Amino acid sequence: MIFIRSGLLYSCFLFSLAGCFSDNLDESSHTDIDGIADNSSPINKITPKSRIFAVGDSLTSGAYGFQWRTSLSEVTNLQVINKGVGGQTSKQISARMGVRPVYISPYVSEISETGVFGLAIPGVHPLTSQGLNYLEGRINSVPGMLYRRRDDGSYYFDVAELLQPVAVKEGDLFKPTALDIAANDIAVIWVGRNNAHELDTVLLDVLRIYNLFAKVTSRIIVLSVINGEAEYTGTTSHSSITAINEQLKFEFGDSYLDIRQVLIESYDPNESQSVIDYEKGTTPSSLREDNVHLNAAGNQIVAYTLYSHMLDHGWL
Predict the structure, then answer these.
(1) Backbone dihedral region of 68: left (phi > 0), alpha (psi from -120 to 50 degrees) or beta?
(2) Which of 87, 158, 171, 254 shows its CA 20 to 30 Å from the CA of 309?
């Protein structure tokens, strides 16, 4: 049920909301799973249940114990796989997703045995201070796990298997393991808030991530970048964010969902600051926990808006 009163959107899902906004489902509990086994006989093949990949920064991973993934999972009855990491820019997200090159500078010239060896990453880092500190992938033909140490941010690679020695040099690539995406999976891409001043970079990274999923599924949602406290109409940050959103809308068309405008129009008419925020074109204080991160009500609106979009497109 939805109740709208003087511009304030109140959404009420037809399920229990107990615990929906606690950040109790991290990436480790939402890692890719095989789901239904693939029987070799075509007669017995069953289409696996859709999953939702949630790609982004802290607006996706959650902050202050609030996030929208759990409630979206509840209302859709689908697994939501958390691919959000707080604090990451679009460049770091696209690197982590395997669609922006991750160059390495190894401290060895040859991988000659299993175990670990140190390396540096001179360019964009796929692992940062928040989120998991490891990422599965390959260096040249060698499979293993890339680790970032929590204490000093240094990197090392743990070789999983080695059939023969492999030369390695500066400028070689670490390639993250590709996601296991199915044709009926859904992707929600919410990227760009942490480097909204880099319009061309954000657009390129969103396009890269979009194309990663578009190779397999057409069920993709690109969310607009939101602005926050004091980022009012006329400010530099407001102009940067609206410029990005205009380009996202142009580029992605029906896949674009203007969550920023939905949140703005969901202001509380009974709170003076919320009204001011609405009139000046930013996410209302009534829906924020700090200057930009959403509170429980704000995350609920995001979840319901996504759910409604998926229903409208016949994905559920």
Answers:
(1) alpha
(2) 87
